[in-house]
Amino acid sequence: MSEKINFTVMLEQALTAVKKTYPEMTITKLELEDENGMLVYKAELINPADNSEMDVAIDSKTGQLVSQDDIVEYQDGESEHAD
Q: How far apart are CA 57 and CA 66, in angstroms?
């Protein structure tokens, strides 16, 4: 039996959130991933001005950008988001 995937934010919404937060960056990759039991959209970004790279994660349930600390806390069962 296959496991049901539970997410409410669609790929297009995640793309919009990243573009809004980092308008100067170019998105090179965006995909849905399981990070320690938390479904997130992982985006790889590059800054065309200096070719610096950055990775960001977007919570697939809320559409909010999350940090690596949020993902670790989710895995540990402490909370879904650290504020």
A: 6
**Tens digits of residue pLDDT in 68-82:** 555 555 556 644 444
CATH number for domain 11-76, candidates 3.40.50.720, 3.10.450.40, 3.10.20.590, 3.40.50.2300 = 3.10.450.40
Indicate whether 51 pLDDT > 80.
Answer: yes
Its pTM surpasses 0.85: no
What Rg do the C-alpha atoms of the chain give, in angstroms?
Answer: 13
φ/ψ of 79, rounded to 5, equals -165, 165
- Written as one letter, the residue type at 64 is Q
